[in-house]
User: Fold these one by one.
Assistant:
Number 1:
Amino acid sequence: MAEQNKNNGAPQNTQRNGKNNKKPRMNFMWVYVLIAIALGCLSVIGDKDLPWSAAASKNVPYTTFQEYVKQGYANKIVANKDEGTVQMFVKPDHIRDVFKTGVDQAGKAPFVQAEYGSADKLEEFVTAERELGNFNGELSYKRSNDTFMQVFWNLFPLLLIIFVWMFIMRRMGSGGGGMGSIFNVGRSRAQLVEKGGENESKVTFKDVAGQASAKQEVQEIVEFLKNPQKFTDLGGKIPKGALLVGPPGTGKTLLAKAVAGEADVPFFSMSGSDFVEMFVGVGASRVRDLFRQAKEKAPCIIFIDEIDAVGRARANNAMMGGNDERESTLNQLLTEMDGFGTNSGVIIMAATNRADILDKALLRAGRFDRQIHVDLPDLNERKAVFKVHLKPIKVDKSLDIDLLARQTPGFSGADIANVCNEAALIAARHGKQSVTKEDFIAAVDRIVGGLEKKTKVMTEEEKRTIALHEAGHATISWNLQYANPLIKVTIVPRGRALGAAWYLPEERQITTKEQMLDEMCATLGGRAAEELFTGHISSGAMNDLERVTKQAYGMIAYMGMSDALPNLCYYNQSEYQWQRPYSEATAQKIDDEVKKMIAEQYERAKALLLEKREGHAALADLLVEREVIYAEDVEKIFGKRPWVSRTEELLEKQGEEEGATPDSPPALPNREGAESTEQSSAS
């Protein structure tokens, strides 16, 4: 019934407005094109080629022309000195002799044309034939008929000016603030969203899963606009701005769309890059026009997506990367945000994932009073996000959404949407009637690890080396207390990775030094296993070494987790400072501490592998045989893990509360817990 009312309402609105959108409009551009084509044709053809002057003609050699004159066929002769041609008009009595056709078909003045070399020779020949009585007509000369071209080139500049003037006037009359009008380049490009309008947003807060705290703050903004007196009566002030901050894909723009769908006020939406233009002053002009329109529509909301494109911090030194046009646009934005009255009813919302590079003047209270953090979803929020994205998908009844949620830590809302869509595509590719758990397993593997390449050719030695490498990761992580719990290990190539070990990272709020060292040791387990059990090292550990090096520098230079440099942080947030915030001596100390820390964990990994030599060898053999092994296979070799991770404790507690068993088969990898064996560019 709702669809029927919606469909029936459209014609009524059309009749009420008295407009017929399907009525064809006259486009004068086609008239201009036809005129240009006609002028071009007239410039190419001459008077003799026009339809009304058509007559029989043919080109002949000069000797044939002389024969015709000697035989008395010539009525008159016309020579064109510019083109070097001579035309002999044939007498009516001899038309059939020359053209093999009658007088009616040949036209009024048929002629033959030939090229001649010298005008003097032509005159001598004609004079001789006239004396012999073979030619009694006249010999005349003419120039090329360029009268039309002279008139055309004299009138062309005037016609061009008239055409450009009419084009500009038509574009000015069409209105709009886009690129259509040269005089509207300074107009705002904001898209207006209103209730009942063409661009009405269909997204509501029900479509935004998770992000409970962010939704609560955004809902308050809508409440401010719907019922401002409720807050102003107590002396409160409506906040001027709210900045949505968070990683990519967490739903910042989706929250803004929900505000546009829930609020009963106009909603102006545009991107930060829409302000930036190559013309000087255009950005500032668009900012002024945007706020002018907003004040006319107040109360309303202005939403600027990716505001870091225009709100980047201004340079202290104008010679070091400063952009005058961008900075003038930012200055105008700062002025407009602090220029209107407190309770004018215009609220500004913006979104960015680079809040650290925004100008401090933009973030101060009075401009953006609130910073709403939209973080990556936790376990329960991921479950809610899965439920939203699984609504249009035909899933199998046995699908466990809890399993999907707790085995995808670190996934954003956009990642989860991509997983659901990829799973549906995989199920359709295999001709299934519904999407099963195996399809979701394959989807996450495809997104995180890349496309499976079972056809990649590898020697037995390479396969054995990769198996030893991945078994080293699994052995170390299984026997360290703070290492991430293992999900599965595979030596099936995916993307650029030749093998991978998938983990289930704990969702910690803080991380201790001991936890980081255990993770570092587990990451180095692959390289250590290669050196111990093959006698050589390979390029397969490049990704591991890169991660370990970055982690060690972060621990020592930023977190103060070094004995030689304790409680010191050398992190420099300034974008325009090119020098390091420490001396060369300190840099040498940092390098030495990084080498020491990595060397200690590498030796620790080798010692643990030697201790668990038999289990590691059995795990490697199983990998070579099956190519993919799971946590239960590792448990059969090394026994049950003596430590229970915080994530596993939460899952067990949740399972006890819900009456479910937490030992669901670990199948899905996760974005943050993949240790991959990559080929280097050299190999």
Number 2:
Amino acid sequence: MLANNNKAIINKLAKNSVKTNKKQYGILFLTIILSTFMLFCVFTIGMTYLESSRLQNTRLNGAEYDIATMNGFTTKQLETLYRNQDIKSVGIESYAGFIKSTEFDNTVEVGLLWCDEVFWNHQMSYARTKLEGRYPENKNELMVTKEMLKICGNENLSVGDSFVLTYENNTGVHTAEFMISGIWDGYGDKSVGFVSKSFYNETGYDLKNDGILCIKLKHNYVLSNTIYSIEKTLNFSDIQIFAPTSYIKNSFKLLIGICGLALIICLSAYLLIYNILYLSVSGKIRYYGLLQSLGMTKKQLLLFITKQMLWIGILGIFTGVLLGILSCLKWVPYIMGVLRISTGNMDLRFHLIIFIISIVVSGISIICGMRKPLQIATNVTPVEATKYKENISLSKSYKRKKGFFFWRMAFEQLKKDKKKTIFVLLSLSISLSVFYCLTTIISSQGERTVLPNYWNADFVVQNQTQTTENINSLQPAIENSFVEEIGKMDGIKDFHLVEGVPIIFPYVPNSFSDMWITNYINRTPHLSSEGVIEDYKANSSDYYGMLIGIDEEQFDYVNQSLSTPIDKQDFLNGEICIVQYEGSEILEEYLKQKVPFNLQGKQYEITIEAVSYETQYSGVDIGASLIVSQNYLESLTSNPTI
């Protein structure tokens, strides 16, 4: 049959076909819009999420690095890192002691750090928002923050001012006057002070035992094998720690997850487009046969169907991208604002590659979805089209059965075209998978999931009047009236009290108290073992501990964190307790034994049943903190401190 030059007629037919089948093509149009919109949003918000994760990781750590090594390093290990082609920079920092008191406040607990130029000028610069002055160069100079000065008792000090402080390091306790060489602000731990290299050299600490390496990789997305190979080349000892940040461990997985989610969206769009076009073409086979009988060639028929989809596809992709841009720019910050989430640091990433990928991938999905229906439409001859019936033949083994007529009828329909049935079921399952993935991602970003904390609490009000050696320093800073006021506040769902009272552990050789004071001496190198033990015997109150009372619900929380849970009723009855410890380990021989302690002039004893390595009940006291039930604590004293 000779082809006719009827392009104008084909265009008119295509337009009329779209107009007369508004419902069918409307669904296709919405499908293309949604797939393009979701692709654009997934890539844009996904890349923004990865960048925000990097920023969050930097701000939480106070510097931009991917791996930290702790407990010292050797010169050989440092040189190995410098030679590694995957590493961009290596910063060094180290603990340099702590401030015990100042001329403004006797209850100070502020750490001192030293860092090298790489860490301060490069890695830490990403977390700083403000810097006045310079990093310390001379021995008695300090780089501080306003928060640290507030803890030290005078936040009004500025660059160039001096103040007297008492500090402790591996060489002992010292008092000296320090000048503020600089003040910085930003993110990270702002309750520490930075000291000069000359000061650090006289602290008794050394990088071989106390140094920390902060490693920044060249790439933001790396395989776990890259991290493992770096660790393997360092040949760490048993005490050294290799700690990759959560971002660098998961960044490549998150990138793969974003691509996987985009693939599922594309597959879902392809299946939906395929199904709709398949049903449309199947229902119009006779119409297409009639067009061929009137002189339309297969090429023209192909052009006729393609033009319908071309208009729908171009308009749908354009609309989807436009909606994606508007959503990312307007609706996401608006929703964040409604939820009272700060949008000041939100940095949406619009890359040209995302526009191209969204358009190309959506176009490929449309083309792939059209391919099979177009083959069906163009391969049927006019004669076959008049007789075309879509898979209505029944199986030869079909037999009439009584009962469940409509169920059997439905089942037979599904068996007619197994391929189409598989595609429909696959479309549904893929769509549900996308929905499940998105809801899982959203729920995983809840504040309780992202940042789990002790007791699932929002606020902790803490008494900070206690000092290390003075047993009488703890004062009732939180009154009962204040507690009652909290209980009456709107929006308070629940609150729990932690009460405590100072206790004295008499020194007993080869017992729990002996083990505890020995561990304290080992953690403080400048102390003399014999001198401290003699002082402990003579002045036990200077080495006091705490008896801490918790309620039943708090006990359930602590008990589930123990390696071996203890008997709840024995705990509530005051027969056993839990010792709070932040060291490496307490040997089993010091557990499950009665430990004597003095409280307000009377001696008691209790069995230590387990060790809690959590930090929520830790204090500044040198002695042990024993966690007991509130009822037991209140039976020993009538006025515990909150």
Number 3:
Amino acid sequence: MIKTRFILLLFIFLFPVILWANDPETSFSRDRFEEIEGRGLVIQTNPRGARVFINGIDRGITPVTLENLQSGEYNIRLTRDGFKERNFNVTLFDTSRLTAFIEMEEAREIVTITVLKDPFSPEQLPFKPEISAGVLSNDNTANINMPLGNHTIRARAFGWEDTSVSVLVSENSTPSVEIYMKRAAFTIENVSQSRHRFNPKNSGDLGVTRIRFEVSAPGDGNFVVLDSYGSVVYERKLQRFNERVQHVIWDGKDLNGFNLPQGLYSILIEANAIAEYTTEVIEIVLIKMETEINYSMDIFSLSLDSGTAGLTFSPLPNTLPAGSYQFDAGILFAANGFSLPTAFPFKIGARFAPIDKLELTSVFNINPLENPGWGISASLKYNFFNGSNSNHENQNLPVSIAAGISYAWANENGESFLSSGRGISLFAPISLELPPFLYILCPVLFLPIPDSFIPRAALCAGFLYKSNWINTGLSFKSEFDLENDIKIKFMIGADARFYPGLSNLFIYLQAGMLTSKMFTSNNSFYGGLGIGMIF
């Protein structure tokens, strides 16, 4: 059924395109003549706008309909600027109308282009030019089939000044163009910085600043970072500039690999041309910009499966800074306890901080079973103490505390097996950060409204390892159901989030176990994977 609907939607989407492609008044790929009822002559061309001459007399611009022509043989001549002239004969009859569909052929000529070094340029400077009109061969020449008219051909090469020439292409001509390029002076342009404020403890692209700039010619350079007192806290020699676009990444560390204190820093890029490629006096080109290290911008992705941001089974007190957000999507699978005969449960989640210390989280999940179900959960969390967001990386037992409330609802078959079910949860997570680890403890009070008004208690715990390219952690949850003779439900889950290429994108894997009683063989296992982005 789904496949049939997909094919129908695809046909509806493509049907107008198919009609347009087959409309004789719009486009056709070859000459075609058709006789229909009526009398006279109809001439259509692709493209439209061709001047029509019948037996040497101008009869207008295509498309043309001439109903009063008598039967007999006629000579047709079609002209249009930039296209080859078309000549053909037609025979008309009183008993039918002739429609001619004519393909106009663009008039083109071969232009020979050669790109050369200026005679006074250094021979040893690499020369790999490119042109806007086509592709050069190994000897920097090209034969380009170009339409008639005036054209501008631009040549560009790293280390050489951009050069352009104009060429007039006329019918029955074979123009030849030589483009001479001069050595470019060494300059730095289009400098940009990805983050003027960042936290080196964040993962992926959120824990670095990227400097992008363009150089006009080969050169050497140094990357230097100064603190607010003007002292050098970090420097390194950059790789030789062998291409136009350059990238430099700084992760907020000093010369010894330790995160620097919070504050303002000056970034200097010192660059110069290579001596062997120039006869002029070498001058240093200096680019200066500022960036701020701010440890209050604690941004890293968290699991959203239970409707609260944290590890799989334990909320974290950490909140995003104002304006930051995360969204992800993933699938789950399970065995020995959960029947999933047709498809995997799917979920999509998001978290957002409208102001500092306040965070909203929501999750929508679908269980596409034979009797499909869905559920939604949302939470509000406020961080009222965050000792880890102080002025230096090296903290003495920093503690963070938050409190929050969440609500989950699901219809039949819609509950996620990683949540506690329908109802209201009150939670108060506490964390202790000893870099690179974060340790969490969180008591939870769950009210399974409207199914029951007897509360359940839960205790969550876990630890998280954070680095620039991975966050991984292990969480535990013991849930006590006071309504059913203090029934204990135990859960354990592992969560790993990878940041490929120091980007805002992350990929996550998860796995774990659930049991209705501790230390029994009646266990259920689950796994999952997904993808998301954080900003």
Number 4:
Amino acid sequence: MKKIIFTLAAFAFMTTACTTKQQTTGIDLANLDTTAVPQNDFYQFACGGWMAANPLTPEYSRFGSFDKLGLNNLEQVNGLIQEIAAKKHPQGSIAQKIGDMYNLAMDTARRDQEGIEPVRNTLAEIAGIEDRAQLSKALGAAMDYSLWAMYVDADAMNSAMNIMNEYQSGFSLGEKEYYLDEDEQTVAIRNAYVAYIEKLFGLFGFEDGAEKAQTVLRMETRLAKAAYSNVELRDPIANYNKMSIAELQELVPQVNWTEYFEALGVTLDSISIGQIPHLQEAGRMLADEPLEDLKTLFTWQVIDGATSYLTSEIYQASFDFYGKVISGREEPSPLWKRAVGIVNGTLGEAVGQMYVAKYFPEENKARMLALVNNLQKALGIRIENLEWMSEETKAKALEKLNAFTIKIGYPDTWRDYTALEVNAKDTYYANLQRAAKFEQEYSLSYLGKPVDKTKWYMTPQTVNAYYNPSSNEICFPAGILQYPFFDMNADDAFNYGAIGVVIGHEMTHGFDDQGCHFDKDGNMINWWTEEDKKAFDERTKVMEEAFNRIEVAPGVHANGAFTLGENIADHGGLQVSYLAFCLNEEAKPEAERLQTRDGFTPAQRFFLAYANVWAGNIRPEEILNRTKSDPHSLGRWRVNGALPQINAWYDAWNVTEESPMYIAPEERVSIW
């Protein structure tokens, strides 16, 4: 391959190094396993020490750097909430709502005393359905059961406006493979699921739990067979089917859609149906399944969804299946963690406002902006130098890159929770029902209106980041802007290797196998020439096949098609951030650029910082679960699967053909 020369003269890069004091390397040498050979198993070398020092406790099915930072954030948020919850506050104030919701979540004694009473009214409503003519209205009004999901989001073909979207739902295990695969482990999970359903029905006072369990499995399996797989769900074109309500009525005549939407409380003239075969099958089920069986399924959805909000015995039964069988966890999370999770989930931005005020220094935002600016320029350079892409498509790609909206830390305008009622006199379940209704009405309030581009889709305290194709935006909440992702006291090698790759990752999502379908305005419009799209698909196929060859457990391989978007983003993030790092280094004195610190060169520290982001331990059950359900590759393979595709890693670590991780240059992935 022809060597590409990048010149600094064309772009002025802002150095992100702090000049007021000597910075650390950011690399914790205790994280390393120096008995491992980095050229043979880079993940073990970079993360082995961390893994040994952070063994899995009974609470976790997986515990990694993400989780450790998340735990730190959770403890910080818990301190803020506990301080509020210990005092009385005026009814209707944010403090009252946060404090009462937390105290309700912590009061297991009250829930044990209340038993299943909080859900009796909902169960009675389902039992009171006497004929099929009532189903459309009941499903529209229901908060706890359905055969499909409705939500408001940007119209993929008109990203400036919001539209109602439909999405497949109705089967509690989530992934269709759990109902259909016949391998030993999946069959064991299905058998345990049936036993769990039977037990839960018994705890809710039903005497025919065994019969009901078989009914639920049969009906969920029917829905799952018609559902799209996780790979099929990744195709944005196939999952966008805009139509009028009259066309929807013709497509699924078994539902009275006028009654359904009236009960939902909305008026609309069009909708985007996500997965047509699933919705049609759901309609047929409403017409041909015995009414009592439909009511059994709806009852199951209510009681399964309520398990975390009722008695300790019911919660334990749920954990024994979802926690132990599915994920391999041995113990539930402590009650305080679950309580904080509920408050974060119901009053997230209100909590986030407190979190930011105490824990997010403004100088972090300034340094992040400099990093993002440099990454954006570096991706532009890489696009301009692509040999496989035409000038016509490059121009469109650069337009999209330059149109990115960048959100860092927290929203400029905080969400209003005035309409959310939290009343300590009511049950925990009733308060959460109101919170769910509040969220639904908040979402529905955007229907038919212009998209609010200031809206955030994560709370500030979240340890994560995202790219939203419909608004062409990248977002980095305050929660992730901490070690091991970001360190104000560390040098650029560390920060480019850690948060820099995260930034590049999110940027690359705008150009992965899904993001490539959306233009600079977030509209699902083809901006590629036919030849360029073909070349892109050929190159992404190399990535897909590379991960298909990875054996994540004995006899179980990674799903390269399912994880393709995230793997492309990891690859792009590494390529773009490393280029930005190199160009940033060029602005420094030569002695500083070449300085070895803690025994490693700047380039080596870049890759160590990246690997440390994915340090973690995981249970065998969770490996299998995530291989079915998670579009991200497992942590080990986000390192050992990704780095052998990066030429700079070979140079930094002197990786030769003798290394078991070596991939010939002509066989490596080369996309962005």
